[in-house]
Amino acid sequence: MGSSFLSRVKSALSEKLVRAWYRPELSPSLYPFVPLAALVKREADKRFQAFRSNPPWKPPVPVIVVGNVTAGGTGKTPMVAALVKRLRNEGYRPGVISRGYGSGNNGQSQLVGQGCDPLICGDEPVMLAELTQAPVVVDTDRQRAVKYLLENTDCNLVISDDGLQHYRLHRDLEIALVDGIRGLGNDYCLPAGPLRESGERLLSVDLVVSNGVLQRELPVESVLMELKPAGVIAVDGSSRKFPDNPPGQVHGVAGIGNPERFFLTLEQQGFAVQRHSFVDHHAFQSEDLSSLGEGIVIMTGKDAIKCRSFARKNWWYLAVEAQLPEPFWAKVLDRLGNL
Description:
Rossmann fold
């Protein structure tokens, strides 16, 4: 039984579970998980209160945490890239830390270089290093990652890609992202719902950002973030230009937390999309996409990082950039200026 087939089975099961999580009401199929969800919520609340009463080590530079309270993709990586770009323009020297999900990290801090193998460094850290040209450090222990970053670079500001629930990490500014369409789902914690901790946690963060127009009510006001397409780029790293008159039908490939958002974006660009979704952080191999033939394939930037070494000439990825309103940046800069 091939790995591609197993991946598609896992993806189908994952999509079924996620659909149940994001219904407005608790699905009957999730009733057996409610006691576990209550335990998860209680433990998350205890950890947060322990963090508040016994703060961790405070680094000598500001730390911004970009995270979420739900499982799955909410646009954290584009947000981190936007923060690096804007704060660099404001005179800061930002560096990034990441857990490096899916990496072969062996419990030690590792500085991610451009072209680093995503199986070793993780897909998102490699993508961020290439997008931002900023130093990126991977470590499951984010406090250790901060120390390593400060010892080995000239950074004077740290941005954590994810880590809202990593309470060994001090933070001066918390930014929580929420998917505008899916919101907080059924408001239950894992495994009965998508929440990593109670939705009330959003009341204590500095800024809540909605990825796309908010269609579900939240317990707090949010800022709108829009992910704008920034070009269709060859997966193999060449400078080839995307065809001026491509066929309307394309294969959309996504191994991210919310693949449907990506497919809808492609459709908004005028493509008729044949959907191919994989589990988040899927370690792509050539056989996963061998059945797609000579038709045009468009994937996410995160997936392209893992497919570059065996990419075909008809494989492309859609680059996106996060756009945020000036009042958001004013709040971020004001907070940093007051530290």
